[in-house]
Amino acid sequence: xxxxxxxxxxxxxxxxxxxxxxxxxxxxxxxxxxxxxxxxxxxxxxxxxxxxxxxxxxxxxxxxxxxxxxxxxxxxxxxxxxxxxxxxxxxxxxxxxxxxxxxxxxxxxxxxxxxxxxxxxxxxxxxxxxxxxxxxxxxxxxxxxxxxxxxxxxxxxxxxxxxxxxxxxxxxxxxxxxxxxxxxxxxxxxxxxxxxxxxxxxxxxxxxxxxxxxxxxxxxxxxxxxxxxxxxxxxxxxxxxxxxxxxxxxxxxxxxxxxxxxxxxxxxxxxxxxxxxxxxxxxxxxxxxxxxxxxxxxxxxxxxxxxxxxxxxxxxxxxxxxxxxxxxxxxxxxxxxxxxxxxxxxxxxxxxxxxxxxxxxxxxxxxxxxxxxxxxxxxxxxxxxxxxxxxxxxxxxxxxxxxxxxxxxxxxxxxxxxxxxxxxxxxxxxxxxxxxxxxxxxxxxxxxxxxxxxxxxxxxxxxxxxxxxxxxxxxxxxxxxxxxxxxxxxxxxxxxxxxxxxxxxxxxxxxxxxxxxxxxxxxxxxxx
Length: 528
Ligand code: NAD
What we know:
21% strand, alpha/beta, 15 helices, 528 residues, Aldehyde Dehydrogenase, Chain A, domain 2
């Protein structure tokens, strides 16, 4: 790999990497990964008409990717609708064979897909590989599910009657995904939707078109290998406008959209207007309560990974620590000490733990949030930009993660800033801590660090955390696929991935069967 040896300026509390790959080296890596997975995309030079495909590692535009036109989007939706008519009657375990093959191909090409995730989303290699592993895991889950799409039999109130529920494929699922999980969220939706008998049209983030091309190529290879229709999965490349083609099209039975609250506020009402179904996975503002009995070694490790990992760009990133007054000073000291040893820089370098922010807007949002926090009385440690060299000063955005001690939860603490800012607040009673945890408009993930079983149980009880995820003694990020993933309030209420999330991808029919020769009416109604 060609590297650039400009040294970064160390201005914040972190160890800073000193080398970045060149844009040409990134282009070569991306081309090699696409070739390996069998993606035959026509990648044009930067600046041509189409979708610019860049990398936050250097901030360069690497290629121009063909953008889907409105006519092509219409054709893709029509093809997926047509494929649905045969796919829905294909036995579910046969549908599972397609997903099993996809899982095998992802296992074979995990390093190729992960490298594209690193190049486009800026994730460190270990996290990028973890994201691909999540795809493989959900494929395995979905294959098992393909033999377990169970309905219930319900006791009928009428003699000689049987009541049951059957689950049927829903239709075409439109999947809209965010830049920060460019492949896993597609797989969560696609693997489950395919075994449920649905077909999928995917609109990935406009910031990650290459990872999308790779996934689409692997799905098409899997379909060819098992003899499934190629059209069960279609790909649309572009921004908001092309996403709107899915939102407004009545042939899209379910729109599963992952992204900001702002996006959900636009998508939700439009799909509801046409009585389509939505599954919304939106922003979070996740907190960890640290109690006096907490194992602080464990808490610090959990907090640092959740807050600084992925450069604070996970929906489940830890944004608030709510520490008991008796442990707050020690905790802040230990977090800032740990932050000082976090290597920031090229996400593909083995020693790096914190990669770049995705783009300039992200950096501006971080600076704006820190300025606001300071004027609200916050004391800031870290949160500085580190430069990889003068030629990157306008293009690549590397920052040291910030810890901000806040006197109170002001409006800026209630907002999701998609960057590594950790607000630290103090509490005196557990009731107060739970109220602070729940005081934000979002409701995705939460955690408590405690060795007191009463506190742990209370945090997970009905009057505890109001989030979709409430953890004990682990951080807020890094969910396993076996559980249902999602959150409440402005996070959108959707659930996807494991458990019984599959039900969102199917329609339910209630069947009453009369096997008697009488016709008793329900509720004892008499009619002639
Ligand atoms: P974003 O909202 O800018 O974009 C997400 C996707 O929505 C993109 O594909 C975009 O093109 C599309 N989009 C935007 N407006 C649209 C519209 N009106 N109609 C149709 N499509 C539209 O989000 P982002 O910056 O890519 O990702 C970061 C955000 O996503 C954060 O808020 C993060 O918390 C959230 N997120 C949530 C989850 C979750 O599971 N809850 C997971 C990952 C990211």
